[in-house]
């Protein structure tokens, strides 16, 4: 699942309008125009082929990890308001390249003010049974001894459960 697909699924799950998407990107520090947004929200044509890196075309703009991270940071600000950084705290550390799904779950948990129980309910709605320990391992910081990488299927089921919860 690439970052464009994550944005498409998240937009559907939470029923985010185009003008709100543009505002969220802007809050995250990335300028996106009305003309660029549909190109970002376009699925990769070669999504299921063996091609790992899809090139940008005039019909699609590839969403990078930095763009996804900025969108999620903007989504937190959109939902919860601007928060001043604490003294000595880095403004925005660089996102890890290989764990977009972990970043997605962590930042959605913060933005939507979800408890662990809420997340377990959402995952259950998505069709996957997870223990608190497994969820905790996915939400841990990369490098922790109990850290677990969140797979595409897990993130897909979470977004499906989120759609069921928010679109009832």
Structure in a nutshell:
The chain has about 170 residues and is mainly alpha-helical. It has eight helices and no strands.
Which key terms come to mind for this protein?
168 residues; mainly alpha
Describe this protein's structure.
With 168 residues, the protein is an all-alpha fold. Helix content is 52%, strand content 0%. The protein has helices spanning 3-14, 18-27, 37-40, 65-80, 100-111, 116-126, 132-139, 152-166. It starts with a helix and ends with a helix. The model is unreliable at 47-52 (pLDDT under 50).
Mean pLDDT: 86
Number of strands: 0
Helix-strand category: mainly alpha
- Quickly count the helices: 8
End-to-end Cα distance: 25 Å
Helix content: 40-55%
Coarse shape = globular
State Rg. Answer: 16 Å
Question: What's the helix and strand layout?
Answer:
Layout: H1 3-14, H2 18-27, H3 37-40, H4 65-80, H5 100-111, H6 116-126, H7 132-139, H8 152-166
């Amino acid at each position: 699942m690439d970052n464009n697909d994550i944005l498409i699924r998240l937009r559907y799950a939470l029923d985010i309008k185009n003008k709100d998407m543009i505002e969220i990107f802007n809050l995250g520090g990335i300028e996106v125009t009305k003309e660029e947004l549909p190109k970002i929200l376009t699925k990769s044509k070669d999504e299921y082929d063996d091609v790992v890196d899809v090139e940008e075309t005039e019909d699609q703009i590839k969403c990078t990890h930095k763009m996804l991270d900025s969108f999620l940071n903007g989504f937190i600000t959109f939902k919860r308001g601007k928060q001043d950084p604490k003294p000595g705290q880095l403004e925005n550390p660089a996102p890890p390249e290989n764990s977009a799904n972990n970043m997605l779950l962590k930042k959605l948990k913060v933005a939507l003010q979800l408890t662990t129980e809420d997340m377990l309910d959402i995952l259950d709605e998505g069709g996957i049974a997870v223990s608190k320990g497994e969820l905790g391992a996915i939400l841990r910081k990369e490098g922790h001894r109990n850290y677990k990488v969140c797979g595409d299927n897990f993130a897909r089921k979470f977004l499906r459960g989120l759609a069921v919860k928010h679109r009832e």
